[in-house]
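Can anyone check this?
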Amino acid sequence: MSPMPGGIRIVFMRRDEEEIRQSYQAFFEQELAMGNHFQERIDDIIAKIKNRKDVLSLDVFWYRDVIENPKKYFQVLKEHGWNIDVEKAVSVVNPQYYRFRKENLIKGII
């Protein structure tokens, strides 16, 4: 990640670890070793990003929330200085690609 003049802006997308694991397994046909304390490790990464001097803004969104209400989150990005056409961005979000939803999964099975 190369710094932009004046700093960088980051959007960090979070997702449920079981959704990630099953999606990965379906695509790559192999198990993803998530290890213990996955979400805590993500929290540590976010904390490190926040402490960087070259980070102008950090927006942390849950993937599920963006899929369910993309306009809200693209509007937040616009308000935080992103040069974004909110309506155009919303128009390319396709909820059909959110195939591995936690409520439809059986933990440990694909």
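Reply from J.R.: I decoded it. The chain has a mean pLDDT of 88.
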